[in-house]
Known about the structure:
This protein has helices at residues 19-33, 88-91, 124-130, 142-153, 158-169, 174-187; strands at residues 6-14, 37-42, 52-60, 76-79, 99-103, 118-122, 134-135, 138-139, 189-190. It is α/β, with parallel strands linked by helices. It has one domain (6-190): Pyruvate-ferredoxin Oxidoreductase, domain 3 (3-Layer(aba) Sandwich), CATH 3.40.920. The protein has a 7-stranded mixed sheet, with helices on one face. Helix 5 runs antiparallel to helix 6 (174-187). It is globular. The model has no long low-confidence stretch (mean pLDDT 92).
Amino acid sequence: MTEGTIxxxxxxxxxxxxxxxxxxxxxxxxxxxxxKDTIAIPIIGAERRxxxxxxFTKISKDKPIRTYDSVKxxxxxxxFDTSLLDIPRIxxxxxxxxxxxxxxxxxxxKSKLPKDxxxxxxxxxxxxxxxxxxxxxGPILNIPMLGAFGKVSGYYDLEVMEKVLKKNFGESKLEKxxxxxxxxxxxxxxx
Length: 191
C-alpha cells in the first residue's frame, strides 16, 4: 500500500452468506489495527436468501475517506460463491491487478480473468461444515473469509480478529469464531 492510498474491497455473495457482516467486520478490524479511516457500505434492497448481494469496504492508512459511493475498481474482491463469477456484471468488475479471494476447493480458471489478477482460494464452506459453524440457511462464511483475507493482505492478524470478534459476538462465541478464522488463515493458498 502506498502512502495516501485508499484500499477498496468488494464482497460478492448470496443473501444469507454473511457478506454484509464481513464488510462491517473488516472495517472494524482495519481500524483496530491502526488504519486511520474505514467505512463499510452495504447494498441492501429487496434481496432474499440466495440472491446475489454486494457490500463494499474502504480502508485508509493515513487519510480520511471522503467518498461514500460503491467501489468500481476494487483492490480486493471477496467471492463467497464462485457461481457468481458467471454473472457478467461481477465478472466484468474484475480488473487487472485485483486480488481475488474465493470460497472454493477447486482452482479458479485464471484464463477467463484479466492478466495480473491474483487468485487465492480457501475452503470456507468446508471449514464451516467441519467446525459446525452454521446457521439455519447454511455455513457462516464471513469469519473464515476474513481469516483468509488477514493472511493474504497482512492488514491484520488473528490477534486483531479475536479482539473485534469478542467485542461483536461475546466471549461465548469467541472460540468457535477463532477456530474457523485460524483454519482459513492457515489454509488459504494462491492458485
